[in-house]
Amino acid sequence: NEHDIDCKHFPNSKCPKMLALARNSWCGQLLCRVANIEARCPFSKSSSGGKQAEKKGKYRIVMVRHGESEWNQKNLFCGWFDAKLSEKGQQEACAAGKALKDAKIEFDVAHTSVLTRAQETLRAALKSSEHKKIPVCTTWRLNERHYGGLTGLNKAETAKKFGEEKVKIWRRSFDTPPPPMEKDHEYYACIVEDPRYKDQLKPEEFPKSESLKLTIERTLPYWNEVIVPQIKDGMRVLIAAHGNSLRGVVKHLECISDKDIMSLNLPTGIPFVYELDESLKPLATLKFLGDPETVKKAMESVANQGKAK
């Protein structure tokens, strides 16, 4: 249909590094929060010498990047290839559900991508949180960024071949897409001919590769036209998706610069929460539902994936 949605139900269903960050760096402020040292960090805009009471907004949105996939485990560029969760990823998804349960957060509707790893994460999280059945909407617009010709390549080996800076640009830049996926690519057919896209995309409409900018351009219409109205109607929304589609939403919500978004690394399987005001503006930056040190290490692990070994 107009929004490319497929709705269904799942069953039940201090800080030495901080001192090196730029004073106005959005990611620096986020890391201060993650490390739970906001009151002591000189670069935190809300630094006051004491812990501030957490603000509760009129609305709340919860998002989670899928748990580790089999291709994450192998450090391969995945994109639109339909990799499943690894054993660790399944554990992360269950842990995400426990975190949601411990936080006493419930939902009325969930949104996820067409890809199995995101759907498996959502299913496991809802089950482990002992959540009631809720409607689940799936859309290609929440898919991971399409990595084009890099799909299936090892990130570290690619960095060694082309240089870490080049790979960082391909992975994290705002408007530079990777090399395109041509028809003779090993994984072209299994992606383009996937029957799940039959009613959503024509073969000629499939992206050959995407920058973050292009990913945002196909993600935000879904956010604005489907998710935002639900939030404003008072529905409690959960999004289980991918690193880059979620980075696009985060960039939009927090008005993060094209440069700073390159440094944002969302860890797998750790939910994060936004409290929003009446105009859906965040009252504070995202809050992870997890142990600060675990979150910090997970973010660093994502950042290191594209480094030569």
CATH topology: Rossmann fold
- Give the domain tally: 1
**Biggest sheet record:** 7 strands, mixed
Unreliable stretches, pLDDT < 50, 5 or more residues? 9-24, 31-53
Total of helices = 11
The CATH first-level class comes to Alpha Beta
Q: CATH superfamily assignment?
A: Phosphoglycerate mutase-like
The chain-level mean pLDDT equals: 85
Residue share in β-strands:
5-15%
Cα radius of gyration in angstroms: 19 Å
Order of helices and strands: EHHEHHEHEHHHHEHEEH
Helix fraction, binned, reads 25-40%
C-alpha geometry: globular
* Secondary structural class: alpha/beta
User: From the coordinates shown, what is the CATH architecture?
Assistant: 3-Layer(aba) Sandwich
Cα end-to-end separation: 45 Å
Order of strands side by side in the largest beta sheet? 1-4-3-5-2-6-7
Query: How many strand units?
Result: 7
Q: What can you see in these coordinates?
A:
The protein has 11 helices and 7 strands. With 309 residues, the chain is of the alpha/beta class. It has one domain (6-13, 21-306): Rossmann fold. Helix 4 (87-102) crosses helix 5 (116-128), helix 6 (155-162) crosses helix 7 (164-172) and helix 9 packs across helix 10. The longest helix is centred in the last third of the chain and has 21 residues, at 212-232. It is globular, with a radius of gyration of 19 Å. It starts with 5 loop residues before the first strand and ends in a 6-residue tail after the last helix. Residues 9-24 and 31-53 have low confidence and may be disordered.
